[in-house]
Amino acid sequence: MSLRDYEPIVGSHVLAELQALAVCVGGRRLQNISSTAVGGGVAEILTHMVPLLRDLGVQADWDLIKGDQAFFNVTKAFHNALHGRPERITGEMLEIYRATTEANLRELRFTGDVIFIHDPQPAGLVAHKREIGRKWMWRCHIDISAPDPAVWAFLRPAVEQYDVAIFSMPDFAQTLPIPQFMVPPSIDPLSNKNKELDERAIEQVLGRHSIDPTRPVLTQISRFDRLKDPLGVIAAYRLVRKRHDCQLVLAGGGASDDPEGLEVLRQVQEAAADDPDIHVLLLPPFSDLEINALVRGSTIVFQKSIREGFGLTVSEALWKRKPVIGGAVGGIKLQIVDGFTGYLVHSPEGAAQRAMRLLGDPELRRMMGDNGYEHVKQNFLLTRHVKDYLLLMLALDHPDQRIITL
Amino acid sequence: MADGSAFHFRTEHRLVRLTGLRATTLGGLVAHLRVVSGSSVFYHTHHQYLARHFVKPVFYNDFAAWAMEALQEPELAEKLAAIDLLAFTAIRPLRNAIVETIERHLAASGAPMRECPSGDEFHFCESQSFIVPTGLVARDVGEFFAVLPRVTNVSLFFHFFEARLRLEQPTNDFSAWLAARGAQDLAYAIDRLDPYVVTLDELKAQILALDPSSARGGAGQ
Question: Measured between alpha carbons, how far is B201 from A56 in angstroms, rounded to an integer?
């Protein structure tokens, strides 16, 4: 994709703003460093973001750290602990993290004027900031509003060495001696997951999964994870079914290497076994077009999470003009404007009641769909995200100023 | 804005800075309000004017909205919303007015302070603004009104809200420039507009209605 491809969506004035800011950024090189090139939200955003930055004339690169399974087991435990889940972190685990960080420090070439580190896995690289120099930014993509104190105590000294830290929501901010910024994540409207599809492509996907396009479809796209409350969605659907002939699609992937995910999937399949109108779809990796079609073929989308980092699946559905019923947690609260782009709920009963209201009122669904599209266009598209990163690079030169004349 | 004669329209880009300070009670809110930056007070009293709303919010002021929604304190919410932002040309007295309003309410109520529900904490943020030229320039009053329809809401926000309150000028940029050009009546008429009770689109329409070259113009030079 090139910058020009976004013009019909966001308008020429938005691109002109980005180009003007990119000129201000000048020749600064931005070196992103993360832990994986595929899978997960960070890789998805960087895949689309780096080419756009280059198109704007910013010298953007993206490097990966290396680690063995033991290292990624440790960082997975860190991830869970930062999300507030109790995890047993041993001294041996901390040593694995330190040793892998040191190995990466020996191998990586730090070529950027701004080193942009994503998430906790590579966060320790900042240990050699004094020798390497440059400006360092740490982007935390996860919810650390209530982190496990032990893991945060381990990571915090590293985070404090950065020039700035970036979080997705105010709720995730910490008391830190460095500037912190809010930058919500974004969706790429031209990616396979979000681009326009023709009706035939949508019907083919629905047909492949024996979903009837003539009856209403309620859908939740998410990992089979307790925190996404798939059983609560089934409970809501059963209440709706008493009044409306409809179908439920629960589609997600990524459970194969996750014992807990497999157990949740088993429970979901068991709960759905007696109802042919519940479609439980375990999708393989790289199913973006399929997910796109499933959402576009839906009447209403759920994201009934009990806890959520940001929940970009909400924006992905709103972009397709679908009203979304979501749990009133995390970033879902920023994306669903209650009563205007969907509904925020706290229980399966609440979700069912809202779904019945929407199913009975096509005009309300259309109005919410249009609102949702506009809300995402204003706030959660990749172009806004690019603008925020350009401004961040400029902000690094003015850490103590709140009004900067460019 | 004005380089002696011409008016250069500017606009702004914004980043939201996070302070890490959060309040769960009115006491906590006041304690943090005393120490946060002026940019934080400005952010929480003004950012809603720039946001897109599906319907006009009841409270544009975050402190009032939080008192109402998270603490169920409607009387305080109304009093905070009633603070006349137009009466201030600096952040410090505005901050004092907010703090005093909350303290008077706490002293009068005598009831124990309510704790907000989990997830509804007040998070203190700040604006970091990047001011850039728009390329739009007016060399005289006629050009000013000719160019104004092309001025964005963000540019209007900068010249009306930021310049006056954050840069501590006695009036908005438009009135200051028009007065310097000898258009005292126009300057006064624009200065009298209340940007806090209308949307930015409505504000722009109100200014355009004052165009002396237009039949609708309400104030002459």
Answer: 31
Do both A206 and A140 map to the same domain?
A: no
Domain enclosing residue A178, as ranges: 3-186+381-395
Determine if the pTM surpasses 0.95: no
Q: Distance between CA B149 and CA A401 in Å, rounded?
A: 31
Cβ pair A98, A155 in contact under 8 A: no
- Out of B107, B125, B143, pick the residue that ends a domain: B125
B162 interfaces chain A, CB cutoff of 8 Å: yes
Quote the minimal CA–CA distance from A348 to chain B in Å: 20
Asked if the C-beta of B143 comes within 8 angstroms of chain A's C-beta atoms, the answer is no
Whether the CB-CB separation of A159 and A176 falls below 8 Å is answered with: yes
* Residue A221 pLDDT > 60: yes
Residue A43 lies in a domain: yes
CB-neighbour burial class of residue B118 (10 A; exposed 0-12, middle 13-18, buried 19+)? exposed
**Predicted confidence band of residue B184 (pLDDT cuts 50, 70, 90):** very high
Structure tokens at A379: 């706030």
Residues forming a β-bridge with A350: none
Same-domain pairing of B24 and B110:
yes
DSSP letters, A75-132, are HHHHHHHHTT------HHHHHHHHHHHHHHHHH-----SEEEEESSTTGGGGGGHHHH
Would the ipTM clear 0.85, i.e. be above it?
yes
* Both structure tokens of A106: 């020996």
Same domain, B144 and B167: yes
Supply the pLDDT for residue B221: 41
Question: Measuring CA to CA, how many Å separate A387 from each of A205, A265, B57?
Answer: 35, 39, 27
* Contact yes or no for A340 and B166 at CB 8 A: no
Looking at CA atoms only, how far is residue B38 from chain A in angstroms? 9
Nearest to A155 by CA among A163, A141, A171, A144: A144
d(CA A372, CA A295): 14
pLDDT one-digit tens code per residue, A65-105: 999 999 999 998 998 899 888 889 999 999 999 999 999 99
Same domain, A131 and A227: no
